[in-house]
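User: Please run a holo structure prediction.
Assistant: Happy to. Please share the sequence and the ligand.
User: Here you go; the ligand is nicotinamide-adenine-dinucleotide.
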Amino acid sequence: MIQLLASTRSKEYPVYLSAAAVREAGNLWSSRGRPGKVVIITDSNVANLFLGSVEQVFVKAGFAVKAIVVDAGEEAKSLAEATRLFSELFRLQTRRGDAVCALGGGVVGDLAGFVASTYMRGIGFVQIPTTLLSQVDSSIGGKVGININEAKNYVGSFYQPDMVITDPELLKTLPREQLVEGLAEVIKYALLSGDEFFYALESGYEEFLMLNMALVEPMVRRCIEYKLGVVSEDERDYGRRAVLNLGHSVGHGIETAGNYTAYSHGQAVALGLLAAVRISEQIFSLPGDYSHRLEALLELLGLPTHYQGIDPGAVISALSSDKKADDISANMVLLKTIGEPVINCDVDATMLRREVERLAAGGK
Ligand SMILES: NC(=O)c1ccc[n+]([C@@H]2O[C@H](COP(=O)([O-])OP(=O)(O)OC[C@H]3O[C@@H](n4cnc5c(N)ncnc54)[C@H](O)[C@@H]3O)[C@@H](O)[C@H]2O)c1
Ligand SMILES: [Zn+2]
């Protein structure tokens, strides 16, 4: 079992990583010296797959275990659902010494984490991420929250988990499009980390899609280590943590302009990464022909290299109202070289517009 240490200003906590790690979840939580009950929050899909076995794992380690199931899907990240969970926790007589265990993808992790951070001003919080995206991204770093009608992720807090159990075997039931969704973020980490990682993806993507653990586990580890390194320096996202937004400016623009239905987050990030790499080649003379290599890799994975049915003008205006970019001509993450990101780069509006138009199907 690999144990990585997350070390942030507010909390230090272990991230346990290995195939079948989830079988140890109860013992590992017991070893943290938190005897209270465990309330598992999961969604309807994950409940059918793993809830029974995860309950057993905690019961065997001596915990009283309860479970609350939310409907699968982004809609669960709402204040109404959080309110229901607060009442359920109260009904289950959950107290400060008890813990919420988020068993699921990023939706469950964000929602359960938000509830754990606010119920009785904060109770124990364990993450067992079950999607690739949540394993490499949302389960670590402590951003928890819900959506409001007007915008995604606008209400929330920073609340680090007390323990994360990352078991890549759980990905075996994940639909392929969800796996590819997470791979867009893995590619982001590769571009942030260096050519060795990027090359490993180029040469190993088929093995990854087949979930060969010998390849998946070390790659998931690299992503987690990268994020933990960034978050340990900048937990509250005032500076360096912004590197994690590589590909996310243009990506958010496409997601928003497509009303969050035309393109999924991962698809939009794939397109955003392509834009960021192309702009990096123009501004920093990024060497290594990464725009073509990235385009080829995205195609092999079935991620888009163009968008259609969305007006590029709408992408540009969505970019300007993005909470992460007050001015469309600034604040992009670019790459000087692979593995060397630069935050807050000024990209002039003309270049940005050109690249957003080029990503449109039929664009040049
Ligand atoms: N907190 C953060 O730092 C952060 C970072 C990135 C994304 N997010 C958030 O994460 C959410 C997206 O997360 P996601 O992509 O994991 O989506 P998700 O949680 O909706 O999961 C995707 C789908 O896969 C199903 N599923 C989960 N695990 C499964 C498994 N092992 N086998 C079969 N099906 C399974 C779910 O039921 C769901 O239908 C968004 O709300 C986003 O805002 C948060
Ligand atoms: Zn993302």
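The chain has two domains: 2-170, 176-359.
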